[in-house]
Amino acid sequence: MLNLKWKPYQGTGVIVISPTRELSLQTYGVLSELMEFFPSFTHGLIMGGANRDTEAKKLAKGVCFVVSTPGRLLDHIQNTESFMFKNLMCLVIDEADRILDIGFELDIKKILRALPKKRQSMLFSATHSPKVDELVQHSLHADPLTIEVIRPEATVAGLEQGYVVCESDKRFLLLFTFLKKNRGKKIMVFFSSCASVRFHFELLNFIDMPVDCIHVW
């Protein structure tokens, strides 16, 4: 796009699809920092929960780079006439396995049918499954380049991995017990959403388990 001297009037050149609002916010945060070095490129974030009319007005002016959740992207493709994506050059599907796990398979297929076939496509997934393979066939060209992490290098040397299977109503108790037993050690806990991070941060501090939190809000 830099070599082509892409301009907003040409519409959207790159679309990045993320499974959730939180991941879209993180991706867009990184994109915004990068775009500081390329002021001629416009960029935008469209996602469920945000003001749809504001997004539509921005798309009408031309957004070179778009980061979006699947549902809201499909909404704009189908219902925002001023959204110009016919010149799309690159599609990125991030965390494809999660997109499928949370039920966006049909939306993604509709998006793929609507977008130009002549484009570069990239798909990223932490896991390999028949559903991901099917999505690869729908979204990528024949015989795509595949890059995999070699198994021996997938885990950092010296790092031990383990997991616990438990009922959902006992999950917090197990987490609290683990944190209590390892008090004084450096521990990082990941949750699936910003709201969940905030909830556990407040709850753990309330029951005298001092923790801090980092998230995009």
TrEMBL record:
RNA helicase. Residues 1-146 form the Helicase ATP-binding domain. It comes from the Eukaryota. The Q motif is unique to and characteristic of the DEAD box family of RNA helicases and controls ATP binding and hydrolysis. This is ATP-dependent RNA helicase. PROSITE patterns: DEAD_ATP_HELICASE, HELICASE_ATP_BIND_1. The lineage of its organism: Eukaryota, Metazoa, Ecdysozoa, Nematoda, Chromadorea. Belongs to the DEAD box helicase family. It is an enzyme of class 3 (hydrolase). Coiled coil: none annotated. One of its GO terms (molecular function) is hydrolase activity. It comes from Panagrolaimus davidi. Keywords: ATP-binding, Helicase, Hydrolase, Nucleotide-binding, RNA-binding. It catalyses: ATP + H2O = ADP + phosphate + H(+).
